[in-house]
Amino acid sequence: MYVWFTALAGLAALFLSFSRKLFPYFAQDCTYILRSIKLGARLTKYKKVKPFYSIVDCFLDAAKRHPSKTFLHFEGREYSYGEVDGQSNKVARALRAAAGLKEGETVALFLANEPGFVWTWLGLAKLGCPAALLNFNIRAKSLLHCFSCCGAKVIVTSAELLDAVVEVLPTLREQGISVYLLSEACNVTGINTLLNKISQASDEPLPRDLRANVSIRSTALYIYTSGTTGLPKAAVVTHERVWAASFIQSVCGVTSDDIFYINLPLYHSAGFLIGMGGAIERGMTIFLRKKFSASQFWDDCRKYNVTVMQYIGETLRYLCNSPMKENEKNHRVRIAIGNGVRTDIWKEFLNRFGDIKVRELYAATEGNIGFINYTSKIGAVGRVNAVHRFFFPYTLIKFDIAKEEPVRNAEGLCIEAARGETGLLVGKVTQRSPFVGYAGNQHQTEKKRLRNVLKKGDLYFNTGDLLRFDHENFMYFQDRVGDTFRWKGENVATSEVADILLMAHGILEANVYGVKVEGHEGRIGMAAVVLKEGEDFDCLDTCKQVCNYLPSYARPRFIRIQPCLEMTGTFKMKKVRLVEEGFDPAHIEDPLYFLDSEKKTYIRLTETIYRAIISREIKL
Fold this sequence. Notes:
CATH topology of the domain at 81-238: Rossmann fold
Keywords: Cell membrane, Fatty acid metabolism, Ligase, Lipid metabolism, Lipid transport, Membrane, Nucleotide-binding, Transmembrane, Transmembrane helix, Transport
CATH architecture of the domain at 81-238: 3-Layer(aba) Sandwich
Strand order of the largest sheet: 2-1-11-10-12-13-14-15
Number of helices: 20
Shape: globular
Number of strands: 30
Catalytic activity: a long-chain fatty acid + ATP + CoA = a long-chain fatty acyl-CoA + AMP + diphosphate; tetracosanoate + ATP + CoA = tetracosanoyl-CoA + AMP + diphosphate; a very long-chain fatty acid + ATP + CoA = a very long-chain fatty acyl-CoA + AMP + diphosphate
Helix content: 25-40%
Domain AMP-binding enzyme C-terminal: 496-572
Domain AMP-dependent synthetase/ligase: 61-384
Membrane topology: Multi-pass membrane protein
């Protein structure tokens, strides 16, 4: 008997060893599948229960369970679940009384990362009012556009952003829009103060019937995204999407005992949905910072016992570029959730700062498909999983980069990309994975719909992203297609930048695109321009226009003067060759200019300046 048991134990050990070699990710796949099924069952339950159980109800339950537990750390102050709950009640009552808000009416939030952002949104959600999260970097034309396309009649802002609001105030007043300032006093006519009203309001719970008509498919938020053309678009985020995004932390293994560090802007889906929404779903504590600081990051983590961090590729690069210190691995961070990190930075980050589980993900605010690399495979953005693919069908299709369109066969159907081949990611539109689209922009919504993909009559969401699957079923992000570039973690619509350049003195035509810079994630803005006959390039006026109307990440740092712009047969501007040629003056005969932020003008791009940029002596 002993011999039999010994033999069986040996066979079992041999089988496990063989299985690990043959299926090295089997255990992680199983854990991911089980967590996903469990969360899917919860979402199905929330869909059916009446009244609808939203993320706000989840927060209220957490506030009842542990009212004294810290919900927010911010600039040395702690705010408990109970305190945030009470403050959001006061905000809701103050806005309801002052602005006459009713269920379903949208309110725009033009705020930086601060506790007021959190409890103002919660207060609106308790009233059943969707919130439009405005990027606090936008100005003038972009600000008015973002505000108007969501249909809001009320905007809430703070004193630090007052100048940007005053700039567009005449237009807002013409449109009958009310502006409320989170301040006790304001001497600008037409702007209402809100803090004095909040301080006088009751913090008693609000009746549940104020949001009685909110359902799983109701609009919860408008989050702005730059698409293939035009100004930023308001992606419609339903309550179902809020729940789905909030589950990402759970899938990554985050628990209620963790402390989550948010330094990404709350107007983004990453900071708001994954960060704050996920923290509410977990019932955990958030450390909120106004903006990212590489020099303070690890000190913050040690001081506040941070265990989960959030990142974009740029933030990890900044951390890796910071001066080395002896205590770099002296922290409690165990999980990092984010997207856009380069493979070399990923490796350096782990070598310098310890065994942190990097959970790289792929998703789009308005999209219907997303992935999480739950295995820590360096470089991958996710993994092909049969269960995930069954519930959320997707595929990669062949894409013609020069023509910027899918390759189709004789029957007019798309052709699936082979394993190892780069293809366009498309997600099938179903009841379980819908594509809601953009508020007030049916044209752009339709442009993201791709029909007759694998069979006649089917409908897919066009992500606009090129990916690749390898032989181990890992997926890798390759590039973005269309007229956008991504810099400093922000998507930039090239046509919006071109519109601003055409306002500058002497510029007749502008072709905007993104170019790679060695050692940096994404692509930085560049433009090829044609000057009006007899005009010289006006360095000062061009700088003035781009600085007045564009946030820093969208400003074209390089200008290339050309005698004419190369066009396609259908009069579309050609960009592929321009992108490939970049901005090296040694290989480009056209005059090149560089935006000098300190001198506040464009200057001639010399080989000396070029080398300083490449060696990072000049910071971009």
